[in-house]
């Protein structure tokens, strides 16, 4: 076979391979980074505590009577309306007690009528001098006792009827179910929390603050909240409640979010960043979190972020000279300037020149008044 005929199939294969290799590779999704501005607020101390998000109004629901669970109408995550049935106990025994109490009321009412009739008859005889004074007093006492017994029986019957109604657990307000801890057939006790309903319009995060820091936390203080499930988005918040008593050497602090980000649900992990003024700290001292600094054979370095203002940016490796390690971070003696943005999470997973997602810092977002001006 002539050589040129053997070359034709090989040439065709090379052309196909060239066409296939000309297609651009699929782009990997951009990594989201957490970062902060250094130097500009270097006179402030920053401390972060972890917590869990929840609704501002949380109802821990329980039955007012004990008994076996007949049915459960909801599951976790279900949105319910006010008055909707959530769960129900088997009320057979309660209904029997209510019926028995009703029978007791009927019997007591009959006895009261009989005693009242006897009293009226003895009273008529007494007026006609046919009965003594003691007989009249005894008849009156029997009538009053029967009347009291009838009222007591009526009260017991009302309690029995209420207990039958207490076997139904309904939603006190509209909200979302965050916990269901009962199953059909299970025996529950009165007062035992079986369903938790999140019904507040605002979201909160509760964190545990140690006793050596709690004195510096004040109600109304502004904080920053980041939620890992929302790509570490930073959300402004305000300290709403500071506990006055400790729980296991820490004090619960409740932070109420100033915004309602889409996708945030009760139970999501969140970090709350507190800023405390430190007048003794020199203003020209730059501090960064310890997780922002890495080291290799070439020395210590950080990643500085250049943003484009549209939620994206590029990270650049920057060599730095580090000083002492304090309880508020590492002192940077050289390599960083006031106002630069430094990556504070995931340093080991990024590289020089990498393009990343960079959500705007809450402190950098313009206020409505500034936009109008």
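Q: What amino acid sequence fits the structure above?
A:
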């Amino acid at each position: 076979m002539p050589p040129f005929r053997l070359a034709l199939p090989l040439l065709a294969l090379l052309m196909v391979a060239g066409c296939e290799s000309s297609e651009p590779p699929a782009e990997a999704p951009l990594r989201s980074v957490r970062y902060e501005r250094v130097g500009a607020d270097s006179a402030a101390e920053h401390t972060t505590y972890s917590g869990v998000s929840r609704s501002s109004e949380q109802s821990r629901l329980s039955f007012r009577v004990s008994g076996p669970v007949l049915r459960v109408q909801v599951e976790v995550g279900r949105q319910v309306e006010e008055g909707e049935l959530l769960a129900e106990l088997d009320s057979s025994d309660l209904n029997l007690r209510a019926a028995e109490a009703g029978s007791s009321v009927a019997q007591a009412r009959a006895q009261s009528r009989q005693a009242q009739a006897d009293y009226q008859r003895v009273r008529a005889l007494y007026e006609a001098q046919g009965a003594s004074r003691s007989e009249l007093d005894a008849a009156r006492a029997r009538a009053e006792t029967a009347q009291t017994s009838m009222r007591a029986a009526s009260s017991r019957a009302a309690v029995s009827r209420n207990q039958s109604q207490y076997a139904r657990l309904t939603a006190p307000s509209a909200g979302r179910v965050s916990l269901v801890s009962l199953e059909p057939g299970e025996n529950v006790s009165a007062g035992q929390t079986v369903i938790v309903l999140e019904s507040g319009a605002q979201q909160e995060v509760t964190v545990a603050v140690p006793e050596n820091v709690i004195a510096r936390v004040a109600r109304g203080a502004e904080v920053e909240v980041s939620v890992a499930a929302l790509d570490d988005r930073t959300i402004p918040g305000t300290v709403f409640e500071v506990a006055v008593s400790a729980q296991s050497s820490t004090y619960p602090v409740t932070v109420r979010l100033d915004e309602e980000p889409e996708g945030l649900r009760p139970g999501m992990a969140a970090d709350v960043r507190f800023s405390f003024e430190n007048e003794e700290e020199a203003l020209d001292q730059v501090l960064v979190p310890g997780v922002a600094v890495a080291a290799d054979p070439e020395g210590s370095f950080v990643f500085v972020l250049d943003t484009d203002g549209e939620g994206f940016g590029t990270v650049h490796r920057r060599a730095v000279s580090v000083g002492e390690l304090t309880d508020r971070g590492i002192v940077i003696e050289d390599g960083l300037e006031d106002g630069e943005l430094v990556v504070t999470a995931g340093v080991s997973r990024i590289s020089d020149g990498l393009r990343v997602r960079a959500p705007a810092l809450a402190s950098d977002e313009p206020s409505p008044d500034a936009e109008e001006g």
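Q: And what stands out in the fold?
A: The CA atoms of residues 62 and 166 lie 10 Å apart.
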